[in-house]
Amino acid sequence: MGEIPKALREKVHKGLKLLVITGAGISAESGVPTFRGEDGLWKRYRAEDLATPWAFERDPKLVWEWYNWRREIIAKAEPNAGHRAIAEMEALFPNFFLITQNVDGLHRRAGNHKLMEIHGNLWLVRCTREGAVWENHEVPLKEIPPRCGRCGALLRPHVVWFGESLDPENLRLAYQLLKGCEVLLVVGTSGVVQPVASFPWEAKRHGAYVVEVNIEPTPITRISDLFLKGKASEILPVFLNELKDCLLSRSN
To answer: Would residue 119 show up in a list of annotated catalytic residues for this protein?
Structure first.
C-alpha cells in the first residue's frame, strides 16, 4: 500500500484516537456467508426475509433452522489476519474502540475487548417472555426452535433484526465515539445498512480522517481520505505495520 499519507502520520505522532467499524466483508474472508450476493441465499430465502420479527412470529422453526445453519458454519470459522490486525491495534492504541456490525463473535475470538457488537451476537439467546439473555454455543441445536429451560417460552437469537431498533445506549455511545475519534477505519462494510451507514459521515463532520478498506468502492469511498482497495486480511496487516513504524519514528 506504500507509505501512509503525511496527514495520517501526524495524527499517529500526536497520539491516535482510533475508531474502527467493520462489516460482513472481513468475516467473509473467514468463510462466513454474507447477506448479499450468491452466498446470501439459503434454500430459496433471502436473509432479509428471515431476519425479521414477523418471520419469527410466522414460522419460528424456519427462522431457527436458518440460524442453526449459520451457527454450524461460523463454529468452524477462524479469525483471519484482518481480525487479528484489529485486535493488535487495540493493544497498540490506548484510545481505541471497535464497532462491528457482525454477529459472528470472531472479533472477540481474535482478542478484541473494547468493542460494541451493535447488531448483537449469534451466540447469545434471549427468552421471548422474560427477556433474559445468555450464551448458547450448542452446535447443532438439540431442539428447533429452542425453548427457555426456565419458563418454556420460545428463545430467539439475541440479534437486531430488520425492522427493529438498535439499543439506544449503544447508539448514544456510538455517536459519542464518532464525535471524538481522530481516525475512523471502516473495513468491509457495504455502506448501505442504516444507521451504521451514516456513521462515516458523522465522523467526517466532526473532523475525523476516514480510511476505508474494501474489495470495491462503496458509498463511503467518496468521503474517504484514504481508500485501500483489497482484502482486509491482506491490507490490514500491512496498514498495522505502517502504524507501528509511525509510532517508532515518533519515539526516536
So the answer is: yes
